[in-house]
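Quick start: read one record
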Amino acid sequence: MHSARLDGKVLAFFAFSIALLLFSIPAFAVTNEDVLTIMTGAGRTGASATGTVTLPWNFDNVPQLRNQTYEQIIEISKAEHLDENRTFISNIYEQVKALDDTWSKEIPPSNYVIVTFKQNLTSDKDITLYPRVTSGNPRIEVYEVNGTNLIAEFTSLNSNEYNKVYLTNLVGEQDTFDLRVLEGSIEIDHIIDPVSPSLPWWAESGTTTMTGATTSVDLSQSVNTSKAFIILSRRASSTYDDPDKSGIYAEWVNSTRFNLRQYSATAGAIIV
């Protein structure tokens, strides 16, 4: 399974075969919050009276790219070690932000780790730790920040591997949690929420020939257009296509259709 950090912005994408004239020029899609940028390259072309553009797409020859599932990773933005009275002891963010064999100092019984994630978590999310037991048989209780209602518990911990607990009793959303260590001591190398609901994508197969300025493409599945992007590239129908008609960009019509529009390749970048 491949993983990609998509910042929660992608549910589905489509890739078209890449060719322009006698060489390949790919197109790249970049998401920035809710704005989609499609950047295209352009080759030197001659003149054409029709400006017809053919866009075939098929992943059959790239099996490792078909029907993949990408997982969203929610990282932490802050982590602190507090004593049993919730008094600040130290900032441990640098030690626990990544799995890098850089460990926090020992967290003794009844002490807390206060951790903040970059996004709110809900009851279907989890907290995952990579600990090292230094004494006893530790367990960890999970509370909302400054809360007293137990929302999850690591009933036991295995050293030098990821330990996961789902936030089953969490009501609503929260980004900050109190982790209370009990009945033993631990050091921590990494804290993360590694998996949110799976983000599936698929490949549409077929051929679209553009004979006008706009052509519609219908999808076999519905997507959330506020959380999806389209990757495009194009192939000229002849070596004499007009460069003013060699650019292509996409715009959503609804959840099962988008339009392809011709655009001058000299524009370089198109915001959709």
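DSSP finds one helix and 18 strands in the chain.
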